[in-house]
Write a structure and sequence with these properties.
7-stranded mixed β-sheet; binds magnesium ion; 801 residues; 32 helices; 16% strand; elongated; binds zinc ion; binds adenosine-5'-triphosphate
Length: 801
């Protein structure tokens, strides 16, 4: 900052330029120096510098004047912006390019801030900081500002970092493994070597029966570790393998794989997922028998066997594989995973337990708790470049189109074209984005039928699909060899994704057997929030996720959850000592004594000396995944004489219903109508005033049908009283009882009421209905309500089909 600034007026004299007047400004005050005083000032200076790039004539005149007084001046590069702001800064090699000139760092930051703080911009502080980092890195203001423009995509600049691949990959020849010859031959058909994490697991005693927790990022070949132990244990007659996964889709995939791969060894595979009770054309062919060598199932599907008291039917268990074991940290399902592991340890004390996960908060601590050896493989088989692009919502489609196209145009050294997975926050969006993309693409999510999902997986595997659009919910495990992952949104539903989900999702980019590298792109909209409860915006969340460390979540269960697990465990033991031991080994803390006393008081448990057992009522609750409160609800309803359909629709309703014409309705009414029928204010909006009369006749008719069928109650807080949901759910069950498949049910709802749903969701709901009907039947028998029991049984048969 200058001590003062001044304005010099030169006179042209025959002897050359001479000072005429010097007006000095200091502290806002004006002062005049005489020419002699001004020259004295110059003589006192250490250095006289003249800014390059000024007016040529003026510069020449000033130099001429200096010469007249035997003074030296030098031309220097200074920041022109600074001069305009009456301050002084040199320019040098590190100065920042701006249009055709260079300016100093300070001015560049000020210019950037001006752009970022413009009234139509809403960048978070984190995002501003990130963009400033880009400026300092590139030293180019135009380029930095250019990245904020979707047309000016600059991949050099949007790159946040590169996660390097590991180079110290120890492998192992499959031919040298100490396993049966037949098994070896099957493995050799696919590959000659083990992948590094597999080799590490073998080194750590995989074939010596050691329990292991294996953590390594996605696509490092964890499944095969489970298979190596499991198949070899089967062949050595140590017992069968249970393979537990969190999702129905994954269970289906592993079931198909194991059936194909090991059938020739005479090894049989069964599947245990909830939906196996509902007969449809595709579930009929799957094997469910418990005497198979391999049983693949969801956590709940396997736990169901234990909870129903059928653990004995499993026979000898040699290996238990818990895939995606980080589900333990899930707030809703964690207790069930913890519970099923604890119970399996109890019923199969000799079995080898293998836990697999890509992301665990504190691997060593978890391994100790699980009593397993930690096998950790930290590095990636291929490097991943992570990019962050700030953009407006309406630019996302254009950006995705471009990124997908460019990636598909590339071929890896392994001969595969680049394919993309786009993650979005809802199933709905999977469809709308897929439809809007100009290239061949497909939506993929758990709500689609297994048949449709499978065909998408196959097309993707064959390299025929440049892109699939999916939800965060399906991030884990399904084999999609994508080279690029795009985050169209950083939310799941209306919640931000967490670190773990983020790692799982981005880990999908780059497969060792297909690609040389992976690309991850986050598209973040500065002012975007998915609900009014969110305090952060998408751009800030993006940066947190990219920089973030994983937070270990504590395993604290509520009393309802604890009681559910205690009841479930009482199905596998009647000894109080054992019950205590099972729960001691679990990861969560259980207030056993207090809750057992309460469960005895509620008549779910019976206590006789050192024995604890389930009452008939408790047995029903345990076998049907009922919480204590749901079990009471059924009992009270049965005693009141309520019908089975009413009871089960009270217990759980189907909420995955969407307005088929939500977009048209929104346009016609000029308000954003939420597409989910039973969410937010959609029903209110549509049926308010004369709104409905503004819609197409056809849609009007369907909506009136919907209202006549489901919105008839006189409750004070209708339509938020729950009656509509219950009636609608009952309708689904009724249509099923007429003999329709899930897909057929969807068609019927579309025709009649203009609403739609996903067949996979319908299937899942019907499965729960069957389970709950079964509970109703059994509870009704306990209380000698024969009519209700018989009605429930009849209905159950029809729903199963
Ligand atoms: N020894 C091997 N040689 C070659 N390819 C292999 C080998 N082992 C596994 N693969 C392949 O690597 C890919 C990824 O394997 P897998 O699905 O088991 O990964 P993962 O670690 O379980 O990943 P995720 O965390 O996503 O579940 C699969 O396509 C699999 O066929
Ligand atoms: Mg896996
Ligand atoms: Zn400057
Ligand atoms: Zn009502």
């Amino acid at each position: 900052m200058p001590l003062f600034t001044g304005e010099l007026i030169l006179n042209k004299t025959p002897a050359g330029s001479r000072p005429h007047k010097f007006r000095m400004l200091r502290d806002g005050k004006e002062e005049y120096l005489t020419p002699a005083e001004f020259i004295d000032l110059l003589r006192m200076s250490d250095r006289i510098m003249i800014a390059k790039g000024g007016n040529e004539a003026t510069t020449a005149a000033f130099m001429d004047m200096l010469k007249g007084f035997q003074l030296d001046g030098e031309l220097v590069n200074v920041c022109r912006f600074c001069l305009l702001k009456r301050r002084f800064n040199f320019l040098n090699r590190r100065s920042i390019r701006y249009h055709s000139e260079k300016i100093c760092e300070e001015c560049a930051k000020e210019e950037l801030a001006r752009v970022l703080n413009a009234p139509y911009c809403h960048y978070s502080d984190e995002a501003k900081k990130r963009i400033e980092e880009m400026l300092l890195q590139t030293r180019d203001l135009d380029r930095t500002v250019g990245t904020l423009d979707p047309e000016g995509l600059d991949q050099e600049l949007t790159r946040f970092d590169t996660v390097q691949a590991s180079l110290d990959a120890r492998t192992m020849r499959i031919a040298d493994l100490p396993i049966s010859k037949n098994f070896k031959d099957i493995l050799l058909q696919k590959s000659d070597e083990l992948l590094p994490v597999q080799a590490k697991a073998v080194d750590a005693g995989l074939f010596k029966g050691k329990h292991q927790l294996v953590t390594s990022v996605t696509a490092t070949g964890k499944t095969l570790i489970g298979e190596l132990a499991g198949i070899e244990n089967i062949l050595r007659k140590k017992g069968k393998m249970l393979y537990l996964v969190p999702l129905v889709a994954l269970a289906n995939q592993k079931y198909d794989q194991f059936t194909d791969k090991y059938g020739s060894l005479g090894i049989t595979t069964s599947i245990r997922i909830g939906s196996a009770r509902i007969r449809t054309s595709s579930t009929l062919k799957m094997r469910r028998a418990l005497d198979s060598n391999i049983i693949v199932g969801t956590y709940e599907g396997i736990d169901f066997i234990l909870r129903s008291g059928d653990a004995d039917l499993l026979g000898k268990i040699g290996t238990v594989v818990i895939d995606e074991v980080h589900t333990l940290e899930d707030s809703e399902r964690g207790h069930r995973v913890d519970g099923v592991i604890g119970r399996l340890k109890y019923i199969a004390p000799a079995a080898q337990f293998i836990y697999l996960s890509a992301t665990v908060a504190e691997p060593l601590a978890l391994a100790q708790k699980l009593n397993a050896i930690l096998v950790e493989y930290e590095y990636r088989p291929v490097p991943i470049e992570r990019h962050l692009i700030f953009c407006e919502e309406h630019d996302k489609l254009k950006l995705m189109t471009r990124l997908v196209r460019e990636e598909f145009a590339r071929t890896s050294t392994k001969g595969h074209r680049g394919q993309t997975i786009i993650f979005t926050n809802s199933r709905r969006n999977c469809h709308s984005i897929s439809e809007a993309l100009p290239m061949v693409s497909a939506p993929y999510h758990a709500g689609l039928t297994q048949f449709v999902r499978k065909s998408v997986e196959e097309r993707f595997l064959k390299g025929k699909l440049p892109v699939v659009v999916t939800t965060a919910a399906l991030a884990a495990g399904v084999d999609f060899p994508a080279s690029q992952v795009i985050f169209e949104s950083l939310a799941m539903g209306i919640e931000w994704i967490n670190m773990q989900e983020f790692m799982q999702m981005l880990g999908r980019a780059g497969r060792p057997d297909y690609h040389d590298r992976g690309i991850v792109v986050l598209l973040a909209t500065p002012n975007k929030r998915y609900s009014s409860e969110q305090t952060e915006t998408e751009d800030a969340v993006a940066i947190k996720l990219l920089k973030g460390k994983m937070m270990p979540s504590s395993l604290d269960y509520g009393e309802d959850e604890q009681m559910e697990e205690i009841l479930a465990s009482a199905a596998v033991t009647s000894s109080k000592k054992d019950l205590t031991a099972i729960h001691k080994r679990m990861l969560g803390t259980f207030e056993l004594t207090k809750l057992v006393t309460r469960l005895v008081h509620y008549k779910f448990l019976e206590k006789r000396e050192d024995n604890i057992s389930l009452t008939p009522f408790g047995q029903i609750a345990a076998g049907h995944f009922l919480s204590v409160s749901s079990a009471f609800l059924i009992r009270d309803a049965v005693l009141k004489g309520m019908g089975p359909l009413e009871i089960v629709t009270n217990l759980e309703f189907f909420d995955g219903v969407y307005f088929k014409y939500a977009a048209q309705i929104s346009t016609a009414l000029d308000i954003n109508v939420p597409s989910r029928v039973f969410q937010g204010a959609s029903l209110d909006i549509i049926f308010e005033g004369d709104n409905i009369s503004q819609l197409d006749q056809n849609i009007q008719d369907q909506l009136f049908e919907f209202a006549a069928a489901f919105l008839t109650c006189k409750c004070k807080d209708s339509p938020y009283c729950g009656c509509a949901e219950r009636r609608f759910s009952a309708k689904i069950v009724e249509i099923r009882m007429e003999g329709y498949d899930p897909a057929g049910i969807v068609h019927k709802m579309e025709d009649m009421y203009g609403v739609t749903a996903y067949p996979g969701d319908i299937l899942g709901y019907l499965d729960n209905v069957v389970r709950n009907l079964d509970a109703v039947e059994k509870i009704a028998r306990v209380y000698s309500k024969k009519d209700i029991a018989n009605a429930a049984r009849e209905m159950k048969k029809q729903v199963e089909g």
